[in-house]
Queue: 2 jobs
Job 1
Amino acid sequence: MAAEVEIGRGKSGRRAYALDEIGIVPSRRTRDPEEVSVAWQIDAYRFETPLLVAPMDSVVSPATAITIGQLGGLGVLDLEGLWTRYESPEPLLAEIASLDDARATLRLQQLYAEPIKEELIGRRIHEIREAGITVAASLTPQRTAKYYKAVIDAGVDIFVIRGTTVSAEHVSGRAEPLNLKQFIYELDVPVIVGGCATYTAALHLMRTGAAGVLVGFGGGSGHTTRTVLGVAVPMATAIADVAAARRDYMDESGGRYVHVIADGGMTNSGDIAKAFACGSDAVMVGSPFARATEAPGRGYHWGAEAHHGEVPRGARVDLGTIGNMDQILYGPAHVADGSMNLIGALRRAMATSGYSDLKEFQRVQVVVTPH
Amino acid sequence: MAAEVEIGRGKSGRRAYALDEIGIVPSRRTRDPEEVSVAWQIDAYRFETPLLVAPMDSVVSPATAITIGQLGGLGVLDLEGLWTRYESPEPLLAEIASLDDARATLRLQQLYAEPIKEELIGRRIHEIREAGITVAASLTPQRTAKYYKAVIDAGVDIFVIRGTTVSAEHVSGRAEPLNLKQFIYELDVPVIVGGCATYTAALHLMRTGAAGVLVGFGGGSGHTTRTVLGVAVPMATAIADVAAARRDYMDESGGRYVHVIADGGMTNSGDIAKAFACGSDAVMVGSPFARATEAPGRGYHWGAEAHHGEVPRGARVDLGTIGNMDQILYGPAHVADGSMNLIGALRRAMATSGYSDLKEFQRVQVVVTPH
Amino acid sequence: MAAEVEIGRGKSGRRAYALDEIGIVPSRRTRDPEEVSVAWQIDAYRFETPLLVAPMDSVVSPATAITIGQLGGLGVLDLEGLWTRYESPEPLLAEIASLDDARATLRLQQLYAEPIKEELIGRRIHEIREAGITVAASLTPQRTAKYYKAVIDAGVDIFVIRGTTVSAEHVSGRAEPLNLKQFIYELDVPVIVGGCATYTAALHLMRTGAAGVLVGFGGGSGHTTRTVLGVAVPMATAIADVAAARRDYMDESGGRYVHVIADGGMTNSGDIAKAFACGSDAVMVGSPFARATEAPGRGYHWGAEAHHGEVPRGARVDLGTIGNMDQILYGPAHVADGSMNLIGALRRAMATSGYSDLKEFQRVQVVVTPH
Amino acid sequence: MAAEVEIGRGKSGRRAYALDEIGIVPSRRTRDPEEVSVAWQIDAYRFETPLLVAPMDSVVSPATAITIGQLGGLGVLDLEGLWTRYESPEPLLAEIASLDDARATLRLQQLYAEPIKEELIGRRIHEIREAGITVAASLTPQRTAKYYKAVIDAGVDIFVIRGTTVSAEHVSGRAEPLNLKQFIYELDVPVIVGGCATYTAALHLMRTGAAGVLVGFGGGSGHTTRTVLGVAVPMATAIADVAAARRDYMDESGGRYVHVIADGGMTNSGDIAKAFACGSDAVMVGSPFARATEAPGRGYHWGAEAHHGEVPRGARVDLGTIGNMDQILYGPAHVADGSMNLIGALRRAMATSGYSDLKEFQRVQVVVTPH
């Protein structure tokens, strides 16, 4: 049934679809937006809004993690970002916003070359914790073994392990790689891990005991992974594949439901609705919040791949500012481009399509249609 | 036979087509354009021109409804627009045309926050009625129960119930939703209802007793439903699906013919011809008439979704002015972009393809070809 | 085997291909460009260059028809253009080149409203005839009955009947339409007729006794038939379909070979090569010659559909001037955009693909590849 | 299984894919980039970097051939370029970089009209040879018979025969064409020959005894072969087809492995990774090195097809300068557009996909996804 096409005599590949190649089709019923539930629960944590904000310095600082939590979402702090490398990152964030484009990548590389201070990991988590919200923070797989104790000791609620591609089976001749399965088993907190983009990779991540998997290659809206690495797995296909792995793993495991969290590539509320329509349980976004008045990036946006020392795969992009985080999540919107009232738009997409909760909405009919 | 494609392991969807992805193919015959009939009849009302002008304040006022009627078409007045909220909307229309883009959405939201005056509903209908033309006016499903008596009492000929998506089965826990079937049964006037975009949704609307169904999500040429909600059903596919529902419903009902009216997304005469080629009985357009010298919008164009208070899904767009309504309908055209002589172009498309009336022309051969 | 796709439940259509969606694939042989023959023969007339220049006032005047003939091609004079409406069109051609874009369509409509002078038909043909080259001239089907005697009397060699769509079966209630079959039978000269774009329409035209059929909807590079009428049959598919009709008609007629002449939509030498690869015997082009220093349009280009009085379907476009007709046909080119040395490029395409004459080259392998 | 589509009734063709239509899909494993091998060996020559720099005057001079060799790659000198036509090409290279666009093609044609000096062939090869690196130089098939002795005598290590299309079976009535098979048999050095783009053409080239075949039509990033000749075989399909020929020829020949070298159309590191993913053993690139500070073209780039005297099929393009050759190959990159650290990006694409050497990486999964 899969649309396998012959690229040449020696190579075939599936046709894969991006979110902007699909459209949601309303059913024969409609509902009131106010009666739609967009609540999401992972492990013991319930959120009124199924939205994680990505661990990127341009959007999540300790302060905005608190704001996002108070608004019903989950902001994830990057524990390898400026906040654990510097005592006072604010002047550096201001400097980044003032760089001209030509110099931005080089300066980001310099700033992120500063070593991580283990002591700051604990301090940042405490800062968020004091606000009484659910605390989530992220490490890359490469640094998880080194720093996870500091993270757990500081009292994180949800542990995020996030990289461009995270596999359950990293092969290395130099060092003992992170044994994800054992690591997750020994931790007391739920772990969300990714990115991954295929059925098989996701199934293996689910078998490590993760509470959730991130689908996609992360990165901000300025990411250039396709151009630099040639790696590209469009999100609509990736989400649907991983959702199928969730179903099969639930059967295999006797009922464990691992959450599928679309991560990256969603720049407007329409994309978010389509991610759920393809099977996501929640979404992780960055760029929509880079446009908030509270965003540490001051309207500029970049991800970890933008400051990679050797092979940067993203740029600092200027998105501008449109409103505060409350407005971006719940409106009212005064623009019509899908950048504000993300949750209001999601409710309306569900209502106009006839669905009353997110789990049902994963079954909504879609069409393939080029933009 | 349907082109169902696998988006991912957990999700499939049909390939759906937009009007600009198809082209009309002439048959082996040709005809004289002058001998082609484009007449259309719905219920007891016959129109020389199969064209409804959409209920949008930028195109239909009481005055232009009269002009359109005198020219052989049917202008539909929006009974939830400025003309039922204000005694004298003209200064407000002038103000809208003077707003800069950045402020337009917010100001539209403010202007349309003014309550509807029931008394004005009757008065506007009377103003049109006095001209002796067929009178059509529209309400959204949400307000139909509240205002329909005022509309009927004022003597509307054709009642239009129009929303982004109108279903025969609206589910609401708050209030008794409009029972379309009973409502239409009790009315004495023919009802046109929509938008809808699928076979099933259309079939259910046809079973309510509607005389016609609107295909599409309405909205002006500046609509952003795809970006904001993720909802998108390209028009060529939607029209062809609903035309199939018309045929099946005619069989099921023992011969009731429900008119299929393509609504939205047609910006030039080529699109209009293609809508008929896909199975439309008539078309409802907005933006082509927003460019008329008589248009209340003064060259600017917006739909109801542009002033939604919480989730606006369209913008006020500047289309400019190109000629009067008579020229736009019947030419002669002095530009070659499909914006003038809409009916002359439709006649010529039919003639060059060898068809002499609209019902036959629904069978014309088409090809799929990217623009 | 045809790629019929379902557009919606009530409508299907073939996927059709434009020339710029295909690419020529070299075979395993190569040849010397100098040893390739591009000669073409229709009826008793042999041409070293398989190229007709379209009957458009911007490219073919009596003077340039002579130039083109002397260079080995065939320029077709439009007998319904300025040269048969005015004694001295030169000042009008200069005026057209000086119009601003906004006024161009209207002024063209005015200039072409001048009646045709039958006397001038004969005179123009004589002017060309005196140069001793093959004379070709065109009328639309609507005016063929009225003027063909004047054309024949003046001694045309090849008679071209050309319109947007020409069918063998025009249906008219007003007047007796041109009976193509009888008309062609009675004439002594070979007739080329079109446009047509489908297998069936072409087969019927072949049965009229035509020596050649024009494939396409004619028109210059500024034509907007798709936007205005919705009619669109991409050229690669149209040529291949009509080439199949040629083969089937040859069988049906016991060996009559009707030439297939791609007409319109070829703007560079690559397009021309692809037209032959799809099955053309010759090509009719306009825009490449509008850029000649000798072109009457002075770098501007327009077709008959651009000055249609009611429904213009094309614009006057500014293409600029790049070289003389000899250079455009035979080079050497000093630009690399396919606008010069059309025949040199065709030879090289054939040679690099391993073919030595045009008839063989119709079998060259092609791929479908989006631009 | 091949996606043969019907273009029209008389013509079918395969759907062929460009590199930018595909994406690499990571497997379920990941690796450390440092443990990935990108080494490549052809005949007795081993390279740490699987990258040939194309014989184009804008990138390979004797000096840069040495630099590239010292960096682990293989620079191929064009023996029909400025270095064998002029004693001192440096002033001419400076002049080319100073031409305005409109005059560039004509001046290139003039400069390359200067005859080749056989004596200079030997001298240039000696200049490179003295540096102690592997020496590679190229001729076109047309001039190979005339000059190959001078090349061999001067001590070339790898002989490259390169043209737009090189076939094993060139048909010519004028002169005895190069008998590739006999020629290669008699030479003592390994020969790389191309371009070719199909399974059959490649198989025939492999049977001549070539050590490697070039896939593609060569040319710089400014090539216009598709526009000028209509010839186009997208690279992803071409590489995969030729890789299949390699496998079948290995079987047919009892084990001879002919290297597949993608040549042309790769402008960033993502394209290079995808070329390997489709089956390449090595890649030949030009434009990425035209941007080196050492490049003879001073940021301008052109290929042999740009100065063809009769039918130029490429332009001199201004790419600008971004860093030295070491940085372009091995980084670190300070831009995120795939133009620097080509080998670092390749390693990372392989590592993130779970592959440890290039031969394995040819099997990586890919998807088809429009850009």
Job 2
Amino acid sequence: MRAAIFEAVGRVAVAEVPDAELREPTDALVRVVRACVCGSDLWAYRGVIPKTEGSRLGHEFIGIVEAIGTAVRTVGIGDFVIAPFQWSDNTCAACLDGIQTRCEHGGTFGAAGSDGGQGEAVRVPLADGTLIAVPGGPSGVDASVIPSLLALTDVAATGLHGAVLAGVTTGSTVAVVGDGAVGLSAVLGAATVLGADRIILMSRHEDRGELGRIFGATDIVAERGEEGIARVRELTRGLGVRHVVEAVGTPKSWKMAIGMARVGGTIGAVGVPHTSPQLGIFTPFVQHLTLSFGIAPVRRYLPDLLARVLAGSYNPGAVFDLDLPLDRVGDGYAAMSDRRSIKTMLTP
Amino acid sequence: MRAAIFEAVGRVAVAEVPDAELREPTDALVRVVRACVCGSDLWAYRGVIPKTEGSRLGHEFIGIVEAIGTAVRTVGIGDFVIAPFQWSDNTCAACLDGIQTRCEHGGTFGAAGSDGGQGEAVRVPLADGTLIAVPGGPSGVDASVIPSLLALTDVAATGLHGAVLAGVTTGSTVAVVGDGAVGLSAVLGAATVLGADRIILMSRHEDRGELGRIFGATDIVAERGEEGIARVRELTRGLGVRHVVEAVGTPKSWKMAIGMARVGGTIGAVGVPHTSPQLGIFTPFVQHLTLSFGIAPVRRYLPDLLARVLAGSYNPGAVFDLDLPLDRVGDGYAAMSDRRSIKTMLTP
């Protein structure tokens, strides 16, 4: 079959790879209908983190179940399924706590030894604990809903998780640092799922700010650094915001997040700190901050978010602004890396 | 009057200083009955943080009101009062949130321009928002209760705050890193005020471990570092603990705290990070941890803790194991610095 592979920094292409196939009784084989490129895929593409030449790529995909192992019970052949970016047994201690991204038998699609989402098919380990089937199957789904189903595999749930970690609830005032697909999804989650009242999105890209407004942002702040912090404080009577979503993960974004948090506030951190392993904790200490970290347990949120998407009340798929055939995956990476695309969809 | 001053690293003594006096209508003048030495006083004593020669010392004291400004309403002359280690107006936005240690008009006793607690008398700014009077006045208080009243000025509330930040509640399993007066007070607060079920105290000093058991610790772990982490995991079916109180503030103690936290757990951080301004956040990220920081707002906890002490159900004063006249303040610092004393009381 054909799948995207990492050739070198700045070079991603489609190549012939071994066919995906069932290995364990708990596996499902999924024919990919749509995949996409994640902001975190760009770290290796840009050479910020190392990746082995020839590695498989992608962890976000939806598709049709083509075969199942003998132990699989909750999905069947022909089902239209959504895969979180990590598989999980959904029965271990961490899963029972709703932290499926720390499943003791879990793993990430595209990691060594597994199929990547950016390909024609994927072996899904622990299918029962991982996949969610869309009611009615592929024929029951309107094509317009496809992007939102795809967004559920990662960014929609990751953004929402950031807002959940930040303690956002009905009537909250929240600031979102990061106007990528995750930050925008945090705006949508805070506004629609959690009922935040005031949502300040830090964004200096007009198209992203525009989508942020559609998703529910009440204020767009284009300034950065100290100026951005000052502007947010200006908007909040000098107090800062009680809830901040950190959706970038760099030292600069962390500085902004901490600077704009109100005394006693909470920062929900979903931006993977690839380049920022160290954080100064003196300011969090004197500001009485709570920092809540986590790689989003997408599986926890899937049933609820799927129901919202199918009901037409949740449209996280609006983050996709580029739709390419899988063969042009390299163009997709380049477009996202150059910020010409917020998020790129791939069709095998 | 006489008060303790900082002479040099390792040298603290009593000297003649200007008399404490009322300056503002909101001030009270308090004659000190008992003061004490705080673990955080030792940072300058040991030369870890700088302090100006001749600086006043101490932020923990209880005493009798000797005079009040014309605007003071809630305490009167002759009242026996407890002072939190910081003064506060108790009316600003932060105070209304129960974070009196970020009061916009607040300050710390012993800081430049203010009287230290380790002296004969103290000018207390914003007396109404700061002091709590002991019902019945000095004559109504049994001498045996004095140490516990003194402990309320800082460590008793700081330890409890650590457990509150760590999310401890009825039935919780909690680990406390640090067996100083704050760590021990965290054990007491978790057990008595919050109803924790299982309390693991990291302690390798026999006397401190003993007091920890009296305060409610169910397990004492003497091992440190990786061995300490392994032992805590052994005690918790390999999972680690949901709630950790970090009551030290050094890189080593932080490493232990993070290492023993259960996936999705919360660390309540009350150990001031004098020597540890940087924290690696990659592990908190993949472990889904929440880090909750804060200099304890003692004033928030005072009414409740005072009632418990007076009812005889709360005895945080057991941390005092050395009682010296103020003139021997230098011996007190030395004893605490050498870990010969958990906490030293001073009588002017």
